[in-house]
Amino acid sequence: MNGFLPHLLLTAMVVYLMQWMFGLLKEKLKPNKIIWVIEDNPIDIELFKLRAIADGYEYRFFNSAKGIIGPLTTSTPDGVIVDYMLGMSVKGDEIFNICKNNKIKCLMLTGYEDEIFGIDRKHIVKKQQDLSHMSKVNQWLVDLFKEPSSC
Question: What is the pTM assigned to this prediction?
Answer without folding.
Answer: 0.74
